[in-house]
Specification:
The protein has 166 residues and is mostly beta strands. The chain has a single domain (30-164), classed as Hypothetical Protein Tm1070, Chain: A (Sandwich). It has 1 helix and 9 strands, in the order αβββββββββ. It has one helix at residues 2-23, and strands spanning 30-36, 40-43, 46-54, 66-74, 85-90, 94-100, 110-122, 131-139, 145-150. Strands 1, 2, 4, 5 and 7 form a 5-stranded antiparallel β-sheet that branches. It has a 4-stranded antiparallel β-sheet with strand order 6-3-8-9, with no helix packed on it.
């Protein structure tokens, strides 16, 4: 009888321990960091473009560099124009998003917009990411650049944070 009770108790403890192990999950949280460019004018013959570059290298343990986020354009009412463009950039890779004047929703020959780059960082990811960005406007026909702005550092991994501040 004692052997049967001990065996039953041991089996019950093993079953509870296994159930507890299977019930445990790794909780991953994501945080975002954003950089808003200052308002910029866009004429009827222009296109705006945001460029993002991941200048990080793979980690010393071999983890590949990767930055993930979105690029969006916001109109004078504070509403996102169209949908945000998602990106993932590996080491040395450039991702872009464009806004032709025809898609800006303007009623005249000129409008203002704000470009926003948002970086998404997972608490469980250890992928190196050092994102640098630029905004340019150019003539939609000739490609001649009219304006070039850069955010002056990095959004993640050593440069200024949102709004260009640490």
């Amino acid at each position: 009888m004692l052997l049967k009770r001990t065996l039953s108790t041991t089996l019950a403890l093993v079953a509870l321990t296994a159930a507890g192990a299977f019930a445990q999950t790794s909780t991953s949280t994501s945080t975002t960091r954003s950089f808003d460019y200052p308002p910029v004018g866009l004429g009827s013959t222009e296109t705006a473009q945001v460029n993002v570059l991941n200048r990080a290298s793979a980690s010393s343990s071999g983890t590949a560099a990767s930055c993930t986020g979105t690029i969006s354009f916001v109109n004078t009412s504070g509403t996102t124009i169209g949908t945000a463009s998602p990106f993932t950039a590996g080491s040395g890779q450039i991702a872009t998003a464009t806004l032709p004047f025809s898609k800006a929703g303007a009623t005249g020959v000129r409008t203002e917009f704000v470009a926003v780059v948002t970086l998404t960082v997972s608490s469980t990811s250890n992928a190196p990411c050092e994102l640098v960005t630029s905004l340019e406007t150019y003539d939609s026909t000739t490609g001649a650049t009219h304006l070039h702005l850069d955010e002056g550092g990095g959004l993640y991994g050593g440069g200024p944070g949102p709004g260009g501040r640490n």
